Amino acid sequence: MENKVYVIGMGPGDAGLMCKSADEILRQCDTIIGYTVYIDLLKDHYPGKEFLTTHMTQEAKRCEMAFEEAKKGKMVAMVCSGDAGVYGMSGLMLEIGAEYPDIKVEVVPGITAALSGGAVLGAPLTHDFAVISLSDRLTPWEKIEQRLECAAKGDFAICIYNPSSKGRPDYLKRACDILLKVLPAERICGTVENIGREGESSKLYTLGELRDAQVNMFTTVFIGNSMTKEIGGRMVTPRGYRI
Amino acid sequence: MENKVYVIGMGPGDAGLMCKSADEILRQCDTIIGYTVYIDLLKDHYPGKEFLTTHMTQEAKRCEMAFEEAKKGKMVAMVCSGDAGVYGMSGLMLEIGAEYPDIKVEVVPGITAALSGGAVLGAPLTHDFAVISLSDRLTPWEKIEQRLECAAKGDFAICIYNPSSKGRPDYLKRACDILLKVLPAERICGTVENIGREGESSKLYTLGELRDAQVNMFTTVFIGNSMTKEIGGRMVTPRGYRI
């Protein structure tokens, strides 16, 4: 049998928002590897599996563990929240996989927060959009600023991941200040918290109000484009400009 | 019972790439409405349902049909390929839904082509990215040009939907020419065709080569960012800039 490691996007957390293929692979595999928080969400649904975890900053070690377990002949699944390819582990798995040429990496997509959060708010991303993370752990802040500015100038709807954390409580405010140089303060925005998990909630703002909104590492933020409107409490970006 | 219409993203077509919630709703509902091509993909999996279809340009009529059926007391699901919120029907459903205040619209997310195609290619969208459709049926071409230029200037990885159709065979070439004003001809790109369906295939290019690639309405195109590389035939964008 071919040695293979699966990199799986588990979606936002709710079992119903996982793909059927992902669920089947998790049922069949021997070993499930992931960041502690995600393993805790999964554990009870997949009894009898071997679970391996590492902490947030140990991504490379986590990948090596996956390949080493696969080398022993085990069927291994590395899980990520959302989609494995959006700020997830599939890139690093393929990079580290170059050292394990006999083990194939198969990526199974999942519902990323732009989609699951968008569904909660209504339809904020129906037209062209950009996804930007405010985490500067692996990216210089200047690069993030440049992307925010370009996305605003391109009239993209924008979905912001990692808007805040303990170490950087004011990052969403800084991002809004950059956007406000290009976009009007009345621009419709929305936030979703704990998508597909206990305590899910959402709220609409103007961009001016969003600047002072309370967000945390479980919040996903949506900035409308020039056509976005509120309809009955939902955030809606029309599909085109000629309707 | 509350009258409700579900707007469901069915993913790329493969039943395994649909969310479990979407599948459950389709099993429970009375009526499934969608564009002819997608209904044909679903029909055999959901026997005993009432299927209603309209052609591609009749989106508003399709939405009205959904609400009218729900008004009769039926449980109705409107299906879209990929995610209902990404160039899908959830925006228009919420707009038309304003005329049916007693009927709630619930959006169920799905795997959009940026994610399913990305998984086939490897990990092209691991970092910040932009999604742009080249269809000018509902959007002026100048707006599309502006977005391509801004996405390139922001060093976003870019995922292009609707790169070509019978009526506009040279649109990908035109888009590449705009990108090539900002990006080098050596930039790594990839295409995926018939994602999650019969005949799935993928290919890597440079941006210079992509300009002359054969694509069609079932192709999704990926343009790397400045860090994207090829590793063992896969397209990989590293997660950060400091590894």
Summarize the structure in words.
Two copies of one chain form a homodimer. By secondary structure, chain A is an alpha/beta fold. Helices cover 30% and strands 25% of the residues of chain A. Chain A is built from eight helices and 13 strands. The first copy, chain A, has helices at 20-28, 36-42, 59-71, 90-97, 113-121, 141-153, 171-180, 207-210; strands spanning 4-9, 31-35, 50-54, 76-80, 104-108, 122-123, 129-133, 157-161, 188-193, 201-206, 219-223, 229-231, 234-236. In chain A, the strands form three sheets. In chain A, strands 3-2-4-1-5 form a five-stranded parallel β-sheet, with helices on both faces. Chain A has a five-stranded mixed β-sheet with strand order 7-8-11-9-10, sandwiched between helices. In chain A, a hairpin with a 7-residue loop joins β9 and β10 (201-206). The longest helix of chain A has 13 residues, at 59-71. The radius of gyration of chain A is 19 Å and the shape is elongated. The model of chain A has no long low-confidence stretch (mean pLDDT 94). At the A-B interface, α1, α4, β5, α5 and β6 of A face α1, α4, β5, α5 and β6 of B. β7 (129-133) of chain A pairs antiparallel with β7 of chain B.
